[in-house]
Amino acid sequence: MRVVQVKEAGGPEQLETVERAGPRPGPGEVLVRVAAAGVNRADLLQRQGHYPPPPGAPDWPGLEVSGVVAGHGPGVDVAAWPLGARVAALLPGGGYASEAVVPVGMLLPVPDDVDLVDAAGLPEAVLTSWTNLVDAGRLAAGEVLLVQGGSGGVGSIAVQLGAALGAHVVATAGGAERAARCRELGARDVVDHRTQDVVEAVRAATGGHGADVVLDVLGAGGLATHQALLATGGRLVVIGTQRGARGEIDLGLLMARRASVIGTTLRPRPLAEKERVVADVRAHVWPMLSDGRLRPVVHARLPLDRAGDAHRLLDSGEVFGKVLLVP
């Protein structure tokens, strides 16, 4: 099979396509013939040597794929996952390949009316959004959700999911065109972070209330802003550190507002915990694909051999939604 591996830690030029022996599914696993793999910022960090795969995972990047079932390991319910079944899956690594082995509990069926290639942009973003908005953030209908980076891979899904859950979604985006697209996805209000003060704009949009839940990919660089705009009882859920990993917390402000700061990651969690999230998503979120409340947002499809270009594109800051690699 073809695999995109990292020659050594460094820039996009360190990605190369090589041939490796195809994997064999073990007990409770299926072999997936990959239709596409999603490109995520975690992949860029892994390429740079900052985010190694967890023990036992393949050493090449890729956290999500779509494709068709091409083989079964012992103990798999073949009737539930027959050969040729259209699936999407979250992986601990190894998605940049023409084949991937996936534990059956990490599979999600791709509905017939969803493009199979585009479905590769769903698993990481949907699972991240659900577990952070609902499990960690305890988002309830009628609350205000601020999605920092509503045009990103996770953000474009979080905006849709928050709206579907009945929240008042406020998103940030850079520029009028990206702001308009966030509104099309379901954001009631959009703050252009290039021209507006985020704290003032969020408070104006919410009648002074602020945000009950903030989904934060910025980290330290957004910490002061997010603390300032949290509502009483607000929850700041940090899922990224694009602007640094160390910042200052105003404990007095958090105490006065009975607010909380929550940090989470998805990739390093035990398999059983991730399988629980997959099951919750299949039950509560996956029906939204069929009724139109949720859809994959794809910026570009590139051949697998152009993984370096895909990383450059994602790093450019111009992507709206997901970049996919197609074997």
How is the secondary structure organized here?
Elements: E1 2-6, E2 15-19, E3 29-39, H1 41-47, E4 64-72, E5 86-90, E6 99-103, E7 107-109, H2 123-136, E8 144-147, H3 153-164, E9 168-173, H4 176-185, E10 189-192, H5 198-205, E11 211-216, H6 223-229, E12 230-238, H7 251-257, E13 260-263, H8 271-284, H9 287-291, E14 298-303, H10 307-315, E15 322-326
Parallel strand pairs: 8-9, 8-11, 9-10, 11-12, 12-13, 14-15
Antiparallel strand pairs: 1-2, 3-4, 3-6, 3-15, 4-5, 5-7
Helix pairs in contact: 2-3, 5-6
How would you characterize this protein structure?
The structure is a single chain. The chain is built from ten helices and 15 strands. With 327 residues, it is an alpha/beta fold. It folds into two domains: 2-122 and 296-326, Medium-chain alcohol dehydrogenases, catalytic domain (Quinone Oxidoreductase, Chain A, domain 1, Alpha-Beta Complex); 125-263, NAD(P)-binding Rossmann-like Domain (Rossmann fold, 3-Layer(aba) Sandwich), CATH 3.40.50. Strands 3, 4, 5, 6, 7, 14 and 15 form a seven-stranded mixed β-sheet that branches. It has a six-stranded parallel β-sheet with strand order 10-9-8-11-12-13, sandwiched between helices. Strands 1-2 form a two-stranded antiparallel ribbon. Helix 4 (176-185) links the parallel strand 9 (168-173) and strand 10.
What is shown here, in short?
The chain has helices at about 40-45, 125-135, 155-165, 175-185, 200-205, 225-230, 250-255, 270-285, 285-290, 305-315; strands at about 1-5, 15-20, 30-40, 65-70, 85-90, 100-105, 105-110, 145, 170-175, 190, 210-215, 230-240, 260-265, 300-305, 320-325. By secondary structure, it is α/β, with parallel strands linked by helices.
